[in-house]
Structure formats: structure tokens, C-alpha cells
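Explain this fold:

***
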Amino acid sequence: MWESETMATLTKQEIEDILSKKERWIALSTLDPQGFPHTIPIGYFLVDDKIVLGCRDGTQKVKNIERDSRVSLMWENGRGKDRLTAIIFQGHARIVRDDKERMELKTEACRQRGEEPPENLSEGSVYIEVTPVKTISWDRPLKSRR
């Protein structure tokens, strides 16, 4: 998973294991119309080598991706300087609006959460599918100071 141009202290398996636990949100950064980063926390799930995010259609992040598919995702453990683990993905995103594809993604999301398969789609929902092209990670405990 995430083979291309990887700079990491975590292995691909460690990254997948961390993300599969879904213990935290992931931060999605897109570029707004003026070129400034637009960063929001969002839930996610993994499908093969992609990271998938569910959201409402027409939001700023969706508009930004439609204009420029380049995105960054960052997961961090929130533990501060004593034990900072973080993963950054740079990649390309696409908006998934096709009903069949959305149902497949929603079914997979439910499966991963241990829920029953969905009967229908939420009106106005879309998925953002991110294909990483670069992965950066680190796992740095603070060395004790004496």
C-alpha cells in the first residue's frame, strides 16, 4: 500500500495498521480559489491503496477538489512531543457521485464498522477518493533529558 515515493520511518504495514484502527480523524487539506490551504478534520476509511472520505456535495472541500485535485491528508496521534506519530499523504482526489460506486463505498464503510449493509444512499452525499502519490511518516519519541 502506498508504494510510490515513500519517505517513512513507519513501514507500509504499520501505516495500514494505524489507519485501520480509525482512532482519530484525518486532516484533509485542499487549495481554495485564492491558493490558500483549506484544512478540515474528517472521517475516513481505507479501500485497497486509497483513502476514502465521506461528505456532503457542494461543500468548499468538494469545490476545491473539482478545481484542483491535489490534496494532502495528515493523521497524527495527538500525543504531543513525548511520542509523536504522524502520517502525511500527498495525492490526487476525485469526487465520487456515481450511485453504483457510492453504494459500493458505503457498503464497504459499513462492513468495516461492523454494521449491516445500507439499504439506500444519503441524499446529497458524495465520497472523496484519494490516491496517494507520496507518503511521509515519522514515529519519534522524545529522548529523555537528564
Observations:
- Confidence is low (pLDDT under 50) at residues 142-146.
- The chain has one domain: 6-136.
- The longest helix spans residues 99-113.
- DSSP finds three helices and eight strands in the chain.
